[in-house]
Specification:
The protein is an alpha+beta fold and 998 residues long. The protein has 31 helices and 23 strands. Strands 3, 4, 5, 6, 7, 8, 9 and 10 form an eight-stranded mixed beta sheet that branches. Strand 3 and strand 4 form a beta hairpin.
Length: 998
């Protein structure tokens, strides 16, 4: 019992060490669990929301729309649980200028159901539910009315139907009607679109670089009042996907299996079948037109024939009359009356030649008959010309039909293609990466400080330990005094850390997240396993340090422990050997130097602890500086062009004419831009970027005309990059990289994520879904987006083997027409504001699919969530620095109580004693700061490995001001600690402190 009482008395006396260990554990556990818990809570809540609303796992789009046959084929795919045919239509309306919206039919199969926030769901024709963004922008409310106008030729579907001459019948033979929605609308509800969780009432994350929205708003309408048998898309739910977390790799693998099945068979077959349907529809229309023309021509020919028959009958009557009269005259002049009577009784028989001669004579003698014959001949001639012209036109249409109908393309996409989903996932993944990296530093510092504190605690009880061991107490029992002390401090600190980690920090992060995204049903949850392991990690580290400190002392005999520890042997320090410096130092300066460098453990612990904390602050500020400059570096340094305009293939020529006619372009480059994928299959043969690497990345495939390969460097800064140590990279000279026909140039953002380097073999998928293995000729510096540049010749070689040979050896005009240049990179005149306005005006043109202003992107790119996490990390690092400095300062004082007492006996005033002790701490702090600043930059350079995000590469940069802030903050913490240490120095009693140990 006495042993326990003495142990408790000892614990109470060492309350400062207890608080230090508890605070360090608290901060470490809070960092370890807090960021993880905040991200996990967000992940789980959104996953539950997606499951409840039936957010699609797979979406299928087609350039020619989807028919009932396509939907039926998708239902037969193994692994598909549900298929929902979607109908939508783009409309425009007047809201402070022309605005666009997508009229979206609310599915009846439970997929992509909007979440009701206010009012009720629409049920009747003309009723709609709108998003809160529309309510905020328009000022309308529930019950307001709105009139919209369908966009003409607003989709590939309508273009295809127009081209192929859909006849409006409700058949599924390629002549399906495009979707049509009511135009007079009434707002009955406010909903949240599960495909876009962006919060319109909060501050925007400005993730426009990841946005795929093509219209301003989305209106949700019921099936009532919607007409048309052609579907704009099909959404699918995959069996077993709902049981997985949508943000886990297991979910992605489950969905990928179904996508691979669709791509493998259904996609190719239905693309061909759909195109054949369109061809059949075109041929049917031509056949119907020919039949109708033939009928009209037959009717016209019948009329002409009837008129000609009537005309001939009239002429024949006249011929007969004249022939009869001539015969009667001849008979009157004859020899006998019988012959005359016989001749008068019958019409004389004329041969055909005589009859035709008489017909012509009669017609020529009569102006009326002549005119009638000319009219008949003219009508026949016109009819023959019309028949020939119509037949020629129909034959031309037949010949042009196959070329006028483009190849049907299917786009099979997963949730990653949704701008809102990918933005949320990228934000949370980046924050979770930081949450996995920073606790390591906190753990190392915690172990160092615990070792320092517990070693001093054990050393102070040296004689007591010797007494207990001499009395027969086991070394384990004696060590338990300190082990339980450290364990209790860790458990209390860890428990408080769990409260901060699972309540405080997540609440802060979720407040920031809810300012960017709407996440219904969000709640804080505790993870028993992760929380317990978090505490256990710090308990093991601190107890290991405590055991080491106890073993160092208890391996001695009781007799040795009962005697005072021999003072360290005197020795010279390195500075003493530098005579010019040493001789000019004062007495107190020499004492300070000896105290700093003779006690190396104190030097290492103090400098190491301060350096670690300073490095954390620098690292946090480095993240902030890096993110702040991403947009400027990408859109002003790397992208030299001011405008990128993209159109549909059929509108490419009109788009270029429109841009050229505006007179704003100073120079331009026509390119082809397609959305595709870059895949690296794991292998160890050296073909891939790194052995065993694997993964896929969505890319923007940019094909450059063969004759203008050299012009690419004028639009995009081409700088080769090479991988360095610890995730860093080296950047080559500007302009030293050229695009050629031997490989593709891959963006650094994609190459870093997949481990690709120059010489690697990758698999590219183009816009048609065709895959090919390509060689990476170089990796280009790129921070935002994943561009892959390919020459026209190499593109043909990869994706069109028939044209590859011709293109490789020829630059004829026929070869150059193999690709449609559907995009333009252009440099503009005028200010940034005028360039942004021009890009917005271009998007209103029907021939333009997307217009992006680099000036706008550079100014609008922000990463607010990262800024909030950086502030959190810097605050926690500052708190750790404060605790570390407090622990080291108190340990320093406790080790040197007799020395301080001696100084007081010698006549030192309190202020002089403060200066004597604090000067050493300030020098050690300065040394730690000097070491911590470059260490922080080194750790910041490793962030490219931790922050491995899709379409983003963090080119770490630390501004000089950040170094200054980190240094000043650490020094300020040191000065603050002095305010706590000085009273301790004042309370040292020289008499009791200088008593002999005996």
């Amino acid at each position: 019992m006495a042993f326990v009482k003495d142990m408790l008395r000892m614990w109470a006396h060492s309350w400062k060490r207890f608080i230090s260990i508890a605070m360090i554990t608290l901060l470490g556990v809070a960092v370890l669990t807090g960021i993880y818990a905040g991200c996990r809570d967000a992940f789980r809540s959104t996953d539950r929301f997606f499951d409840a609303q039936g957010l699609h796992d797979v979406q299928v789009l087609s350039t020619a729309g989807l028919s009932n046959g396509d939907i039926a084929a998708l239902r037969k795919v193994n692994g598909v649980a549900k298929v929902q045919a979607e109908r939508s239509q783009e409309v425009t309306f007047d809201l402070d200028g022309r605005k666009s919206a997508t009229m979206q039919e609310i599915g009846t199969n439970g997929i992509d159901q909007p979440y009701l926030q206010e009012g009720r769901m629409p049920k009747k024709a003309g009723e709609i539910a709108v998003t809160r963004k529309f309510i905020r922008d328009s000022g309308k409310r529930i019950g307001s009315r709105l009139t919209v106008t369908p966009e003409s030729a607003s989709s590939d579907t309508s273009d295809t139907n127009d081209t192929n001459g859909a006849d409006g019948t409700n058949e599924t033979n390629g002549t399906d009607e495009a979707p049509s929605f009511p135009t007079k609308l009434t707002i009955v509800g406010v909903v949240l679109d599960p495909q876009n969780l962006s919060n319109p009432d909060g501050y925007s994350a400005m993730t426009s670089f990841r946005s795929t929205a093509t219209t301003d708003y989305t209106f949700f309408a019921p099936s009532d009042g919607v007409t048309g048998t052609l579907y704009t898309s099909a959404t699918l739910l995959v069996k077993g996907a709902a049981a997985e977390s949508t943000f886990d790799e297991s979910y992605e693998n489950t969905v990928k299996q179904v996508i691979d099945r669709i791509d493998g068979t259904v996609k190719t077959d239905r693309q061909k079948a759909r195109r054949q349907e369109l061809l059949d529809a075109g041929n049917k229309k031509i056949a119907d037109a020919r039949a109708e023309a033939d009928k009209k021509f037959a009717d016209a020919q019948s009329q002409i024939d009837a008129n000609r028959q009537q005309f001939n009958q009239q002429v024949d009557q006249i011929v007969s009359m004249q022939a009869g009269a001539a015969a009667a005259g001849a008979a009157a002049n004859g020899a006998n009356a019988g012959a005359a009577a016989a001749a008068g009784a019958t019409t004389p028989q004329l041969d055909e030649t005589t009859r035709e001669t008489m017909r012509e004579t009669i017609i020529a003698a009569s102006p009326e008959l002549t005119q009638a014959k000319q009219q008949l001949d003219q009508a026949q001639s016109q009819l023959n010309e019309q028949k020939a012209s119509t037949e020629q036109t129909l034959k031309t249409k037949e010949n042009e039909l196959k070329t006028s109908i483009p190849q049907v393309r299917w786009y099979v996409q997963d949730r990653q293609s949704l701008g809102g989903f990918s933005a949320l996932k990228s934000d949370l993944d980046s924050i979770q990466s930081l949450g996995n990296a920073f606790p390591i530093v906190f753990l190392l510092v915690a172990v160092m400080m615990s070792l320092t504190a517990m070693a001093r605690m054990v050393e102070e009880d040296r004689s007591l330990i010797g007494t207990y061991v001499g009395l027969g107490y086991g070394r384990l029992a004696v060590a338990s005094r300190y082990l339980l002390f450290a364990l209790l401090a860790c458990l209390i600190g860890g428990g408080l850390g769990l409260i901060a980690g699972f309540l405080g920090i997540p609440a802060f992060l979720l407040v920031v997240l809810q300012g960017m995204y709407v996440m219904p049903g969000l709640r804080l949850e505790y993870d028993w396993l992760y929380g317990s392991l978090g505490i256990a990690l710090f308990v093991v580290g601190v107890l290991a340090a405590t055991i080491y400190a106890c073993v160092q002392e208890m391996r001695q005999t009781p007799a040795s422990l009962l005697r005072p520890k021999a003072p360290r042997a005197g020795s010279r320090i390195l500075l003493e050997r530098i005579r010019p410096v040493w001789n000019r130092m004062g007495f107190l300066g020499k004492v300070t130097a000896r105290n700093i460098f003779r006690f190396k453990s104190r030097l290492i612990m103090t400098v190491g602890g301060v350096a670690g904390c300073t490095a954390l602050i620098v690292c946090g500020l480095a993240i902030n500086d890096t993110v702040a400059d991403l947009g400027i570096k990408q859109y002003r340094d790397i992208y030299q062009y001011d405008l990128m305009v993209v159109s549909d293939d059929s509108d490419a020529s009109a788009m270029r004419t429109k841009v050229a006619s505006d007179g704003r372009v100073t120079s331009s480059l026509d390119v082809r831009i397609e959305s595709g994928d870059l895949t690296v299959a794991g292998s160890g043969d050296g073909d891939s970027g790194k052995a065993g690497s694997s993964g896929s990345e969505s890319i923007q495939l940019v094909a450059v005309p063969e004759k203008h390969l050299s012009d690419l460097g004028e639009m995009v800064t081409l700088q080769p990059v090479s991988s360095g140590i610890l995730g860093t990279s080296g950047v080559g000279k500007t302009g030293s990289l050229k695009l050629d026909d031997d490989g593709v140039i891959v963006a650094q953002s994609a190459a870093s994520a997949l481990g690709v380097k120059a010489g690697s073999k990758v698999r590219l998928t183009n816009g048609d879904g065709v895959q090919a293995t390509a060689k990476v000729s170089a990796v280009n510096r790129n921070l935002i987006g994943s561009d892959v540049y390919v020459s026209e010749t190499y593109y043909a070689k990869l994706f069109d083997s028939k044209d590859a040979k011709n293109t490789k050896n020829s630059k004829s005009s026929e070869d150059s027409e193999a690709l449609t240049w559907n995009a333009m990179l252009a440099k503009l005149s005028g200010s940034d504001t005028s360039q942004t306005d021009y890009a917005e005006s271009l998007e209103e043109d029907s021939s333009v699919m997307k217009a992006v202003s680099c000036a706008h992107m550079a100014d609008s790119f922000k990463f607010d969530l990262m800024g909030a996490v950086v502030a959190l990390i810097v605050a926690l690092a500052g708190g750790l620095a404060l605790v570390v400095l407090f622990t080291l300062a108190n340990t320093n004082v406790s080790e040197r109580v007799r020395e301080m007492a001696t100084l007081k006996v010698l006549g030192f005033f309190d202020r002089e004693v403060h200066h004597y002790v604090n000067r050493e701490m300030m020098i050690l702090t300065v040394m730690g700061v000097i070491l911590g600043l470059p260490l922080g930059r080194l750790v910041g350079g490793m962030l490219t490995m931790a922050l491995n995000m899709p379409s983003l590469y963090f080119e770490v940069e630390v501004k000089p001001l950040s170094y200054v802030i980190a240094a000043v903050a650490t020094m300020a913490f040191a000065l603050l600690v002095q305010l706590f240490v000085n009273p301790v120095l004042d309370r040292i009693d020289p008499i009791s402190s200088l008593k002999s140990v005996e």
